[in-house]
């Protein structure tokens, strides 16, 4: 069996407990207290029980603590997935959106998300979903704008006849007050 990875010697169990009292991150506090068990001479299994994790996780905590100190035990933000489009592809996409499609070349008179997905696939050989492309375009500052639909047989001269009109000012109703009721 391999020897356990040793803890750095510039901290003590008392130091870790004092740090744990001053910290707000619950995960970091739990990790500091588990490592304090090891500094007190406890086994890695006891530290794992204290932290509510397995032995491999305690080993990972020890490595992070040795490398980065107490700040290495803070929960980090997950890096997330790799972006589908790089900066040059985003710039080309922005230029294509700004210039608009060429009907003879692209087969459309205005860009839709599905058309842009196909253009990206043809141009860069990158597969991207319409939802992801929509998110990318919104992050680049573009918004979907659509004109209000108008019926093709709508008569512009008939519109004023159907508009609702309101009385020019408020008027008192013809109701009498209850005090004057016979």
From TrEMBL:
Alphabetized Pfam families for the sequence: HTH_29, HTH_33
Bilayer-spanning residue ranges: none
Origin superkingdom: Bacteria
Residue ranges occupied by any Winged helix-turn helix domain in the UniProt entry: 108-166
Alphabetized InterPro entries for the sequence: Homeodomain-like_sf, Winged_HTH_dom
Annotated spans, Disordered: 146-182
Protein's UniProt name: Winged helix-turn helix domain-containing protein
Organism: Sandarakinorhabdus glacialis
């Amino acid at each position: 069996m391999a020897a356990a990875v040793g803890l750095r010697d510039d901290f003590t169990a008392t130091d870790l407990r004092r740090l744990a009292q001053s910290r707000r991150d619950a995960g970091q506090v739990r990790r500091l207290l588990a490592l304090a068990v090891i500094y007190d001479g406890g086994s890695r299994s006891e530290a794992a029980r204290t932290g509510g994790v397995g032995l491999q996780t305690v080993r990972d905590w020890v490595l992070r603590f040795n490398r980065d100190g107490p700040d290495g035990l803070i929960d980090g933000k997950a890096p997330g997935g790799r972006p589908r489009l790089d900066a040059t592809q985003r710039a080309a996409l922005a230029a294509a959106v700004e210039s608009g499609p060429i009907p003879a070349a692209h087969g459309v008179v205005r860009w839709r998300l599905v058309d842009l997905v196909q253009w990206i696939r043809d141009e860069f050989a990158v597969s991207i979903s319409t939802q992801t492309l929509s998110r990318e375009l919104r992050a680049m500052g573009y918004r979907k704008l659509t004109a209000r639909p108008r019926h093709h047989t709508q008569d512009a001269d008939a519109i004023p006849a159907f508009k609702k009109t309101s009385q020019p000012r408020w008027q008192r109703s013809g109701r009498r007050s209850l005090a004057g009721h016979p």
